[in-house]
Design a protein that fits this description.
Largest sheet: 5 strands, parallel
Distance between the termini: 18 Å
CATH class of the largest domain: Alpha Beta
Helix content: 40-55%
Oligomer: single chain
Number of domains: 2
Number of strands: 12
Radius of gyration: 30 Å
Strand content: 15-25%
Shape: elongated
Length: 360
């Protein structure tokens, strides 16, 4: 839900300030300042959308104040009030202070309301353009990284397969057939994993939220079964689900997040350990679900946890992951308005804890 429009009114006459606040405080989030210095402090500490300033003030005029904040607050909409019919002030207001509207004092309530409403429409539209531009810049950045990664992660296993086939043909030695097939299978699995991550990435980005009731026992069991083909036979899965209340969220996005974290826990197991473990614990209450996925794998080196959710980032070369999985996890959790925290000790294992709001 959108909050009230934040409006700052500057006037050196105190009774005007109080009158403005009394008139508009119900409809707007009103801030008042008796001087431009006080106004600058308010701008520094609050997200102000519109500034209404008196032209004639002792220390500096309204136009001079507007001109001075052009660089620090370029997107704030400016409305100038003056009791003087000075055409030069109007010209300067437009040219120097980038003023949206010029109104005469004493101000009229309906004129102020109309000016604020029109100014906010422009302010909001500009904000949306800024957000879209940032999204576009991020999309282009991700596209560049995708093209680079795809050229490496998709071609590399294909080249390995072709290389093994050529060697097998040249040798013609059937005793090595199994080893060759194992190498081909490994390359195909790498390629398949990369393609699955790309599908997850696409679904998470392009499909809108769709809420439905979730049974965590069924979801976690499905995610584990889906990953078993890639799991070492000796890995021990421990699942604890504490759900007595209905839980509602987006099943696809939450499933993608849990499945990727389970896949990560399997992929980065420490093969030197005799006992390999992966646990999934879910606790549901009326407000949220807490999902804790813990493994005793190779862990993450110190200083790397802040980077693991970046697209195509790999914290280790011990396993050739795509660098997409954890990025998709973080993006899915963000879309669900949830949080994710990581605790990891290199050589001991990792813990991922998700907190997802209950939309029930």
């Amino acid at each position: 839900m959108q909050g009230k429009i934040a409006v700052l009114y500057i006037d050196d006459e105190r009774h005007n300030l109080y009158a403005f606040r009394a008139t508009f405080r119900i409809d707007y989030e009103v801030y008042i300042a008796e001087s431009t210095d006080e106004a600058r402090q308010i701008l520094a500490n609050h997200a102000i959308s519109i500034v209404v300033a008196d032209q004639r003030m002792p220390k500096e005029t309204g136009i001079e104040f507007f001109e001075s904040i052009m660089r620090t607050h370029p997107h704030v909409m400016r409305i100038l009030l003056t009791g003087y019919t000075d055409i030069q002030a109007v010209i300067n207001a437009v040219n120097l202070g980038n003023v949206f509207r010029y109104l005469q004092k004493p101000w009229k309530e309906e004129e102020i309301r109309t000016a604020i409403s029109q100014a906010y429409e422009i302010h909001h539209a500009r904000e949306q353009v800024i957000i879209k531009n940032k999204d576009l810049e991020l999309a282009y950045s991700e596209l560049d990284k995708f093209v680079y990664s795809a050229s490496h992660d998709m071609r590399s296993p294909l080249m390995s397969i072709l290389g093994v086939i050529k060697i097998a043909r040249l040798e013609g030695n059937q005793s090595n057939t199994k080893a060759y097939f194992d190498m081909i299978e490994e390359s195909v699995d790498r390629l398949d994993g990369f393609i699955k991550n790309i599908i997850d990435y696409y679904q998470n980005k392009r499909i809108n939220l769709h809420y439905s009731e979730i049974d965590f026992q069924d979801m976690v069991d499905f995610c584990i079964q889906n990953q078993l083909q890639n799991a070492p036979s000796e890995i021990n899965f421990n699942v604890e689900i504490a759900q007595t209340l209905p839980f509602t969220s987006d099943k696809l996005k939450l499933g993608i997040a849990i499945s990727n974290l389970i896949s990560n826990g399997i992929k980065y197991q420490d093969h030197s350990k005799t006992k390999k473990e992966l646990s999934v614990k879910v606790t549901v209450d009326a407000t949220r679900a807490t999902i804790r996925i813990e493994d005793n794998g190779i862990g993450i080196q110190e200083g790397e946890t802040e980077n693991i959710f970046k697209i195509f980032y790999r914290a280790t070369n011990r396993n050739p992951g795509s660098g997409i999985g954890l990025y998709v996890v973080k993006d899915a959790i963000d879309q669900l308005n949830g949080t994710i925290e990581v605790q990891s000790t290199y050589g001991q294992g990792s813990i991922f804890e998700l907190k997802i709001p209950n939309q029930a």
